[in-house]
Amino acid sequence: MRFDIITLFPELFAPFLASGVTRRAYASGQVDVRLWNPRDYADGNYRRVDDRPFGGGPGMVMMAEPLARCLVAIRAERGEPEGGQAPVVLFSPIGESLNHAAVERWSASAGGVLLCGRYEGIDQRFIDAHVNVQMSLGDFVLSGGEIAAMALLDAVARLQPGVLNDEGSHQLDSFNPALDGLLDCPHYTRPEEWAGQQVPVALMSGHHAQIERWRRDQRLVTTARHRPDLIDVARKAGRLAPADEAVLAKLG
Ligand SMILES: C[S@@+](CC[C@H](N)C(=O)[O-])C[C@H]1O[C@@H](n2cnc3c(N)ncnc32)[C@H](O)[C@@H]1O
């Protein structure tokens, strides 16, 4: 898959693409990332990409024209046929919050163009003409869309085959439909006792079925405590067995 990122700060992506899981996905070519700076498509000595908002008020607005030229260059480099254009995603508080289902959809896609806003945002005429999807990282305001783009790329990268050191590990992560969308269970490692606290006995038993039951119980308990809405979803989908309901009933 290929992601073309439009950003005024391409340098922010260098360490991100040079480390850990995202480095492996990027280096293997499974997630092809190309960076585009709208400043390279702006006019004049100052290569201006922003201007004051009509109607007054604080801050600056990203101009439509450098973005439009940048997008033309991206589409030309992608060699896109008419009607086969990659979707343009704008990171914005307006969009739907990124979640696991969206990440799974993107990880199975051919990619897209990710537009990182800055300042007060982007001239609405560019958004109306070219943006297909708006995506938010949550109900708060970032200084720019770059961190949101990295969040999407990171989450997509770790779902690509062979990118994680342990292939199966993402299948045990929170929100996975294969584990009924529950949150992850607690994890422990050596030593067996730390600061007066023992590792739960079930995990030391060496008994596979007992360990799996303990993990399932803990997923249920953690989810019921922190995200009861996810328990409701699993229940409505008929994903909770009588043994699961018995665990939840004990929580009161
Ligand atoms: C300072 S913000 C602009 C905020 C905008 N004036 C507002 O109140 O919604 C600059 C850029 O950061 C990005 N951004 C800010 N918050 C975001 C969020 N919650 N999710 C995704 N992107 C965000 C967007 O690309 C936005 O254009």
Automatic annotation (TrEMBL):
One of its GO terms (biological process) is methylation. Specifically methylates guanosine-37 in various tRNAs. One of its GO terms (molecular function) is tRNA (guanine(37)-N1)-methyltransferase activity. This is tRNA (guanine-N(1)-)-methyltransferase. InterPro entries: Alpha/beta_knot_MTases, tRNA_m1G_MeTrfase_C_sf, tRNA_m1G_MeTrfase_TrmD, tRNA_m1G_MTases_N, tRNA_MeTrfase_TRMD/TRM10. The keyword Magnesium does not apply. The gene is trmD. Its EC number is 2.1.1.228. It catalyses: guanosine(37) in tRNA + S-adenosyl-L-methionine = N(1)-methylguanosine(37) in tRNA + S-adenosyl-L-homocysteine + H(+). Homodimer. Residues 1-231 form the tRNA methyltransferase TRMD/TRM10-type domain. It is found in: Cytoplasm. S-adenosyl-L-methionine binds at residues 117, 137-142. Keywords: Cytoplasm, Methyltransferase, S-adenosyl-L-methionine, Transferase, tRNA processing. Its main location: cytoplasm. SUPFAM superfamilies: alpha/beta knot. The keyword Phosphoprotein does not apply. Pfam families: tRNA_m1G_MT. Belongs to the RNA methyltransferase TrmD family. Coiled coil: none annotated. It comes from the Bacteria.
